[in-house]
Fold these 3 entries.
Entry 1:
Amino acid sequence: MNQENEKKLIHKNTRPTSMRLLVYDFMSNQKAALSLNDIEQHFHYADRITIYRTLKTFEEKGIIHSIQENTTTKYMLCADKCNETTHQDLHLHLYCKLCRQTTCQENFSLPQPIATNFRIDEVRFFAKGICSDCLDESLL
């Protein structure tokens, strides 16, 4: 287990249990958002409820953010600037219609919301199309 990951969890006010460290390590190596089923497939002997609770704790602490994709929720690691109060992931989530993966497009971001008389905790910015990898393959 990576001690750096343990420090990141502690920094986010999250106790670094064995399962949390395993899930964090796994999620930190993903390039696309994953559903609970996708994550569960990686942890053959782990309890589904434990994985779900870990994901919910991570979401509450600003470690991951959820992306609603039709009837499925997928999860992706947050940027370090997210915390328990607000998620600062103001970027496009792209769903590829060919490979069916959802990725965070950090290079396409929304400007900071204008300050108003209410607090914006989350903005969902979602698009469907074809990712660059699938476009490159279709040109072959």
Note: The beta strands are 34-35, 64-69, 72-77, 91-96, 102-109, 126-129.
Entry 2:
Amino acid sequence: MLPLMKVTHLITFACGALLTLGLTSVTQSQAQSPNHVYELRMYHAMPGKFGDLQKRFREHVITLFNRHDMNSIGYWVPQDKPDSDNLLIYILEHPSREAATKDWAAFNADPEWVKVKADSEVNGKLVDHVDDYFMNPTDFSKIK
């Protein structure tokens, strides 16, 4: 488990990256849905499985997210060790918390995802655990 200070730094990093790298995408989506929520997810890979986890996202997960209307804002890897060896951070945008619940349920039930997950974990789990936060923009944020 990451110390509280380290988790805070990761959340701050991800929010800053959202502002810096995802502003165009976010601005476009705001015009479509003013009441959206953001979901920050941090995947802690099992030892030696980080490359496999990234491959699964690169080759399958993002396509499946798109199929289930899950809007990817961005994906990041920390610069500093040890987190750079095992931590994948990403942010999704959802129209609402309820839509996120519905979309995740559809994603997890998708037969292609079930197969991709099983195939990618034939030699063991890729993910140790996931930290997941739903976030609302503040009234002083550039993103509303």
Note: Residues 4-135 form a domain with the Alpha-Beta Plaits fold (CATH 3.30.70.100).
Entry 3:
Amino acid sequence: MVINLSEQNSIAGQFIAELRDVEIQHDRLRFRTNVQRLGKIFAYEISKTFAYRIEERETPLGVASVSVPSERVIIASILRAGLPLHEGMLDFIDYAENAFISAYRKHHKDGTFEINLEYATCPNLDGSILILTDAMLATGSSFHAALKILQDYGTPKSIHIATIIGSSDGINYISRLYPKVKIWVGAQDEELTAKSFIVPGLGDAGDLLYGEKLQE
């Protein structure tokens, strides 16, 4: 299942518009803030799928019945571009446990690349709701590699992927491999370049968030 936030009008469209804008991108603080804002929106939307229980809470004037989430939630991020999305989600799902995965493209001279995994830290996933975040879903290779390594930590009850921009090819790739995973995207773009960058996309999200890197 794919849930595309841009298919319905909301303030998320304003944040995505600013993230795409080459002039506004020069303001790195605003770029990070908009990514964090989208993380909050994703958290709110995904929370509608949670299971809830009724509790009674005492107020100054009586007792109220309230609905609260009843399942463990684990937010996992692919470093480094997934971090601001993670932070935005954690502002709303503040009781969530957390996981982090280092996954990056190692490019070859012939233009191909492979995904290198160097680090993962994760709690037990058994029976939990797992939300995996990264800024972009281009080919889907990083998400695939992350989901494979997360299998070592248990079996979640459900899995959600959250990303700002997803390519049609990448979304279809993950959907074929993981048909039960729900994919949440801010917007979906049709084209990938020869080097597997999303067009029109928004550029290198990691560099725009944290500055250019020497590694290719």
Note: Residues 2-210 form a domain with the Rossmann fold fold (CATH 3.40.50.2020).
